[in-house]
Amino acid sequence: MWRLTWAQMRRNVGKLIAVGIAIALGTGFITATFVTTNAVEDTALAAARSSVGDPDLVVSSSAYALEDSDRDALAAIDGVAAVQVAANVFREIATPQGQEVLVLNAPATDPRLGTTTLLEGREPEAAGEIALPTSTADRLGVALGDSVDLVSTVYSDDASAEPTRTVEQVTLVGLLSDGTGFGFGLPSALAAPADLEGWRADDGNSTYSLLTLTTDDGADVAAVGDAVTAAVASTDSTTVITGEQYARDVAASFTDGIQIFRALILAFAAVAMAVAGIVIANTFTVLVAQRTRTLALLRCVGATKTQIRRSVRLEALVLGVVASVAGILIGLGLGQLALSIIHARVEGVPAPTTVPVDLATILVPLLSGVVVTVVAAGGAARLATSVAPLAAMRPVDAVVSERSRRLRPILGWILTGGGLALMVGALVMSRVEGTFEVALAVGVLGGLISIVGVVMAAITIVPALAGLLGRGVARLGGAPLTLAATNSVRNPRRTTSTATALIVGVALVTMMSTGAAMAREQLESELDAQFAIDVAVGGENLSPATIDAITAVDGVQDTVLLRTAQIDVETASFATTATVYVADPATIGSVLATAPADWDPSTVLADGYLISQDGPVTLGTVGEGEEFDGVLVEGLPDYSIMVTEQVADELELVGSQESLWIALADDADPVDAADAIRDAVSDTTAGTDAAAPQVGGGAIEKAGFTQVLDTLLAVVVGLLGVAVVIALIGVANTLSLSVVERRRENALLRALGLTRRQLRATLAVEGVLLAAVGAIVGLVLGLVYGWIGGLLLLGPTTGMTVGSLSVPWNAVLAVLAVAVAAGVLASVLPARGAVRVPPVAALAAE
Amino acid sequence: MSQTPPVPSTVPTPTTRTPAGVPGPPPASSHPDPAAAAAVRGVGLRKTYGRGDAQVHALDGVDVAFGRGQFTAIMGASGSGKSTLLHLLAGLDSATAGQVHLGDTELTSLDDNALTELRRKRVGFVFQSFNLLPMFTAEQNILLPLELAGSKVTPDVRAWFDRLVTTLGLRDRLTHRPSELSGGQQQRVAIARALLTRPDVVFADEPTGNLDSRSGAEVLEFLRTSVRELGQTVVMVTHDAQAAAYADRAVLVADGRIAGDVADPTPEVVQAELDRLRTASLASPASTPARGVAAGSTPAVEAR
């Protein structure tokens, strides 16, 4: 039978390739997911390793319970070669060109314990020496031998006191490779041990959280580990593990998220595979229908049902394996390409240079590809066995009669209705306090049930809709339109399953777009209240040059300079320290979106962290303060009070801190404007003694939030787009099958005077009809799912109601446009085959 | 029927090759019943389509037997039931009532797998539309039954294959695909395929229907050769009196019943019989093919 299966596959190679692409896309998707997440994990592991060097043992204490005495005790243990403590001192390095905060540590006593590599110069030995990462030195414009400012900002225990800033000169003696500064997100630098001791004392730190050590060559690491454990087991928080284990633990703590991310993307991959499954099932059914005569003959000359079934399954198996392997190669190739690009663009990335491949990367896509293919072809295999040997006797091509499935659509409608009812029930439930998780689970279950129902009931929707659209199209006149309209409903089952694949893909894309549009709308209105200040630049005695530079920035509309100070605040419920801003009621409205229009100068404004409703607020030293009427204003910075000059005088506020609040023009790009403001600030403050002013504010965060949402949406839509692409392959497949089947009919039409152009147009319109039907049903479903999902997720917290639903027209029109374009595109190749058939073929016998 | 079929000594007697697992014959049809000598035998065959008013009796109680080593033509007008009879005899379709005996095997009690095995080993088919696999060469098409059975080409089979190919004049065509063969050549390949397993009986359904008269005559000549020289049994359905004249015997079917039996038919005799049946059918409206119940002017004939 193998030879027979092979021969049949060779005859239908075109169709099989088309389905194979659908499978390959799905498996490639899965492979790429694994490769990417593996690469991230490997990168994290590499970074985690380099963060501690290559120690044999790591002693860590989450309670910072390790002391110098522990280090000495460990060094004395038999078999321990060297011990390194992680001093981790944070200091700012400043030059006229800028400043940067770094993590400082001592040079390693054992090269294996070093976390950076010396590239040039030497390691710091004496006090006043420092080694910086090359990239930092470049950024700050310093070379070996130059001296740089090392700024210490030490906070005293008294919260209200200003921190003390001291500046000392250090000499750059070495240049280091760019360490990862894993866990701190800061560059790693080296300083002399003596300096580090002093700085740690200044900071009030005397203990460590991490010790790394190496053992003597040939020493039993486990035995040494036991001795170390015995020596340091002072508290429960102290653990002793191997260096490799430590790196894995650290990496794992940073890649927990990646597992969720992987699961999420694999869920999308599952959708893509499901759509591929529909396309496969469809194609195989048609293949079997076309082979009715051959199958009947085989049955006549002695092929058993088992042999026929096995032959179709074998075909699916071969297709599944070949296509999955191709998909895996594509996925690996894409992953490698991405890695190469990353390496070419960013120097010194700890990412692997070749794609990390493990067993799962190969097995998961291979198995899912093969299983989906074989299972999807199962229906066709059963169908093939139902071909009666008698069919070989009939002079005309017999059509395989599929078992009538009148029950299926009925069950489908029941499931659809039930699923929708569950979703509505979930909506009602979500309004009840404390049932959110249950409501969400019920809603998701309802969604899954209803989509299965829709797929089952599609046979009652799709042909009807195709007929309706077709009649509309046919009314426009012209032979191609009329022909396409009738052709599109000639095989309702095939039309349905082709459209079904598209329905699933489009519904998911639309659902995500609708949900994201709702979330975005909601987020924006919330952000407007929360980030009422576009940009704020805070610092000590902002120079007029800085303020002028900021005012001149493109997109800056208004600026207001506010005096700020720290003050003790006592409210009805608690006492704390807050930042007080002194503002003029006449101008503050131009930079604070939520400023009250009628601010009584004798009252004070307070943010939501201080008071939850209007009420008395006492300002000033605890016990001696003065009571004011507090007005709650959302959008003020956290823990802040705003007062008029009048009140400020009463309080005798002192302080040299200032804050410049900036309102951006509506049409300004917040990120660009904020960047320009930041540049203006650093240009005008670099080289001065003053601490660098802080640039913050809602505009950037607001833009950040919407940007994150938009990026996420784009990624999700892109991933689901793969499912749509697979579905469109199905459309092209169906069209090409139609062309094969209607070879003589098309030739007859050509003989009767249909031009090649008209024949092409007929197929294009048929493709558009197929795609449009799938897109329309998918859009409607997606909108409903998106609305319900949005209400379910956002409703309870925002009070969003059915009245606030809207249609994301941009997305809807985009999907329709893509469907129409794809329908035309899908018809191109089949049409090329169709027009090649000469009119005379109509007269020739088969 | 006076002729004793020449059974060449090289050809084993078909009944000795009854496959294991096939149920034995019912006691009623065991020797010395003379009908057991028949290669294939139908007893009380009925085939009814539809129910109630729409009921159609395609076959209405047919008893017929076909001798071993004989070339028989089943003749009749369209809708007479001749094709249905062939389908029932070949085990392709199930009878509403009655039995079919292929040698010692009773077909109506067999399940699909047993029927399939029986078709593979003991029955051969030749179709009107040739039905060759387009992607296989002539040789591969001929050997298809072996491929399906998963059995090797033994020296014995190879010798038989060579003899078939030589007899049918296909020696030079073995590596060609069906699209490279003429209609007559394709049908000869189909005959070789049908004969490869030395079946108990070969059923041919209008084997010349798609051929020009010269190729048709050639194919009929080969069918007769396979009976006379290779000792095979052939049952052929045809509506063509010229074709029927190649057979040793012509069984006429009308209105779902056996309506005549001609030994050593000539075109003229067969044509005369067909004309007589047509006239009888026209004279008696009650016996239109669809509802024929009491027609059958000629008694059903038990062969030999």
Automatic annotation (TrEMBL), chain A:
One GO term describing the cellular component: plasma membrane
Keywords from the UniProt entry: Cell membrane, Membrane, Transmembrane, Transmembrane helix
InterPro entries in the cross-refs: ABC3_permease_C, Macrolide_Exporter_MacB
Bilayer topology: Multi-pass membrane protein
Residues annotated as domain ABC3 transporter permease C-terminal: 267-383, 719-839
Main location class: membrane
Keyword Zinc-finger set for record: no
GO molecular function, one term: transmembrane transporter activity
Compartments, as annotated in UniProt: Cell membrane
Residue ranges of the TM segments: 12-35, 263-289, 316-342, 362-384, 410-432, 438-466, 499-519, 712-740, 761-788, 808-829
Family: Belongs to the ABC-4 integral membrane protein family.
Protein name per the record: Putative ABC transporter protein
Originating species: Serinibacter arcticus
